[in-house]
Amino acid sequence: MSSKKPKSVKYNPQPTSSKATYIVGGIAILVIAALVVGGVLWSTNKGKTRNEGYGAVQNSAVQVAMEDAGVVRLGLPEVTNTIDVFEDPMCPFCAQLEEKHGQEVAQAIDEGKLAVRYHILNFLDRLSASGDYSTRAVAASQCVAETGNAIAYSKFHGELFSPANQPEEKGKSDLSNDDLAGLARDAGAGDDAATCITGGERLPQAAADAETGRQALAASGATGTPAVVHNGQVIDALGNDNWVAQVSQ
Fold it and tell me: Which residues contact 212 (CB under 8 A, 6 or more apart)?
């Protein structure tokens, strides 16, 4: 990532998630308008799921590890080809990205073609029913990652962004800590992860890590979530169907 000091940014979600991805504040009106159009096109032409039926990571040699600032690395330990993925658990376009390319990414991880560093953010807390859902989901993700069970983490991450589980922006409800713990158990993370989630002790650290991730997103040059960065370059993961194959070469 860039060594320059990240500039302070403010996230300004658009009024309705069907109109655009989430934009970093301070962008010119014309750029925002272009992204609105891009969001509509993505929503309309998102296409079918890539590698449908593959599922989550399956290779028992894949490892999951917590890095600095709550970044979660998922991949074979010897793999140096890495992408950084920035997502907010409330972001509907992040869910669409995971729905379309998540299984394709999982297979690339299993085959040692790439590793992923997940930066889970929380700037959409204010659009959740509880007011802190994104932060709690960040903490839950970290609790699962700390188990060291890569397959469970991959499954949990997929379920976190699945249409069946992702809360609606400005909706009337979201997932409780007990619900998140249930997803972790169902993914195979075990009781330690579930206790970590329901206890809530990770919440302050998760909030701090999400803020660091927000600054890293701004420093990367990306203008919103989801964002995929490879070798310092922001990838057109919403508009280019072949991006996974291209970054895996």
Answer: 69, 70
Task: Give residue-wise pLDDT tens across range 58-75.
Answer: 999 999 999 999 999 999
User: Which residue segment(s) compose the domain that 214 sits in?
Assistant: 53-247
Indicate whether 190 belongs to any domain. Answer: yes
Inside any domain, residue 167: yes
CA distance 47 to 71: 29
Q: Are 99 and 163 in contact (CB under 8 A)?
A: yes
Task: Output the domain CATH number for residue 209.
Answer: 3.40.30.10
Is 149 within the bounds of a domain? yes
Specify burial of residue 80 (Cβ count, 10 A radius: 0-12, 13-18, 19+).
Answer: exposed
| Between 22 and 139, the higher pLDDT residue | 139
CA–CA separation, 46 vs 182, rounded Å? 30
44 exposed, middle or buried (CB, 10 Å; 0-12, 13-18, 19+)? exposed
Per residue in 3-15, pLDDT tens? 443 343 333 333 3
**Look-up: residue for tokens 């990838």?**
235
> Residue 226: is the preceding peptide bond cis (ω within 30°)?
yes
Strand ranges inside 88-179, DSSP E: 115-120
The total number of structural domains in the chain stands at: 1
**Cβ 206 vs Cβ 139: under 8 Å:** yes
Q: Is the Cβ–Cβ distance between 74 and 109 less than 8 Å?
A: yes
pLDDT of 187-211, one tens digit each?
A: 999 999 999 999 999 999 999 999 9
Q: pTM for the full model? A: 0.84
